Amino acid sequence: MLADTNAVANIAVRDLDVARRFYEGTLGMTPVGREGDDVVAYGSGDSEFFVYRSDFAGTNQATAMTWVVGDGLDDVVRALRDKGVAFEHYEMPDMTLEGDVHVSGDLRVAWFKDPDGNILNVVNG
């Protein structure tokens, strides 16, 4: 039923202008549509996601969105750090921290937050 249908991430934010500066200026996203004054759609690869205004922004304590960046993970982490992004460091079983990247075998992942505290990450795949 749903397995053949595209899924879209939704990221809640308190202030859409602040969020736009982060998602567009820091992460380099380009809006592909706007649904009224409280929602912006962004294209990301072959998918899209929505950033919308909500009083419940930043209340999720888990990863809200992941970008699979493959072998370019270190370059992406460096570019984000150069733009002022601070990476999260977690104590996780079976993972070691190498700089800002958590490593478990072949898996490499770096977590960071948007201005509302939404947890985002980049992973090598």
Radius of gyration, in Å, reads 15 Å
Q: Structural class of the helix and strand makeup? A: alpha+beta
List unreliable stretches of 5+ residues: none
Distance between the termini: 26 Å
Protein name: VOC family protein
Domain VOC: 4-125
InterPro entries: Glyas_Bleomycin-R_OHBP_Dase, Glyas_Fos-R_dOase_dom, VOC_core
Pfam family, one: Glyoxalase
Label this structure with key terms.
125 residues; alpha+beta; 2,3-Dihydroxybiphenyl 1,2-Dioxygenase, domain 1; 10 strands; Glyas_Bleomycin-R_OHBP_Dase; VOC_core; Glyas_Fos-R_dOase_dom
Describe this protein's structure.
18% of the residues are buried. The mean pLDDT is 94. With 125 residues, the chain is α+β, with helices and mostly antiparallel strands. Helices cover 17% and strands 40% of the residues. InterPro entries: Glyas_Bleomycin-R_OHBP_Dase, Glyas_Fos-R_dOase_dom, VOC_core. It comes from Novilysobacter erysipheiresistens. This is VOC family protein.
What order do the helices and strands come in, and which of them pair?
Elements: E1 9-13, H1 16-26, E2 30-34, E3 39-44, E4 47-53, E5 63-68, H2 73-82, E6 87-88, E7 96-98, E8 101-104, E9 107-113, E10 119-123
Parallel strand pairs: 1-4, 5-10
Antiparallel strand pairs: 2-3, 3-4, 6-9, 7-8, 8-9, 9-10
Pfam families: Glyoxalase (PF00903)
InterPro entries: Glyas_Bleomycin-R_OHBP_Dase (IPR029068), Glyas_Fos-R_dOase_dom (IPR004360), VOC_core (IPR037523)
Domain VOC: 4-125
